[in-house]
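Attaching the record inline, Q. Sequence:
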Amino acid sequence: MASTVVAPPVDDPRTRGRLTIPQRVVQRIAAQAASEIAAAGGRAGGLLGLGGRVEQGARPKVTATLSSESVDLAIELALDYPVSLRTAARQVRDHVAERVRTLTGVAVHRIDLTVVAVGLADRADSEGLR
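Structure, as predicted:
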C-alpha cells in the first residue's frame, strides 16, 4: 500500500510575517541613486554648513519619511555648472524613484530636491549616469 503525503496548506503571503526596511537603509539607497547621476553630487568639508565645497564623489544628504506603503524623500545635493537645473532635477527624481522602488519594493510618494551648491564640473562627461 502506497502512502500519501499531504502538503501543508499554503498561507496567504500577507499572513506569513513582515519585512521591515529601516529608514536609514532607504536613505542610503536614495543617496547612492542620486549620486549615480553625473551632474549630481554632495558637499564636503565646512563647519555648520559654511565653507563647504562641491564634491561630486560625495553622496547627497537624504532624509526619508516612511509610511506603511510609501516613502517621502528630501534630498540636498550639489550640481555641476553649467547644467540645466530642470533636466538634472528630473533625472535625479526619476532615477532615485526607480532605484528605491526596485531595491526596496517601497513606492516613492514624493521627492523634494534642494540644490545646496552649484560648482564647476571637474570632468568632461556631465550627462547621464556615472
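The radius of gyration is 20 Å. Residues 43 and 55 are 5 Å apart (CA to CA).

More tomorrow.
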